[in-house]
Amino acid sequence: MVRNKVEDLNNILFEQLERLNDDSLDLDNELKRATGISKISNNIIESMNLVYKATKLNADMTGEFKTPEMLEVKNENKTESKNN
Fold first, then answer.
1. Nearest residue to 33 (alpha-carbon basis) of 9, 3, 7, 12
2. How far apart are the C-alpha atoms of 84 and 81, rounded to whole Å?
3. In terms of Cα–Cα distance, which of 45, 42, 59 is closest to 6?
4. Span 29-52, pLDDT tens digits
5. DSSP assignment of the chain
6. Per residue in 61-75, pLDDT tens?
């Protein structure tokens, strides 16, 4: 079961952006951290893009489409409204 999803990556990237904007933190250390996060994020995005392309190719060839779990985005508003 995939534990990390696209929304998790977005959250991490925005958290890092907020840290870079925090004047109380050591900018040099945060820039090093941001550089590492950026490099890893780019690899993850490239991997997700490959999964998407393979899924699309399969859908084009077979007519069947199933969103890969790693690309799913939860819609919490719809989930909450179903439970109420």
1. 12
2. 5
3. 45
4. 999 999 999 999 999 999 999 999
5. -----HHHHHHHHHHHHHHHT-TTS-HHHHHHHHHHHHHHHHHHHHHHHHHHHHHHHHHHHHS-----GGG----HHHHHHHH-
6. 999 988 888 777 776
User: Token match 């409204």: residue?
Assistant: 81
Contact of 20 with 31, CB cutoff 8 Å: yes
Q: What is the pLDDT of residues 5-29, one digit of tens each?
A: 888 889 999 999 999 999 999 999 9
CA distance 75 to 58: 25
- Give yes or no for a contact between 48 and 70, defined as CB atoms under 8 angstroms apart: yes
Q: Are 58 and 67 in contact (CB under 8 A)?
A: no
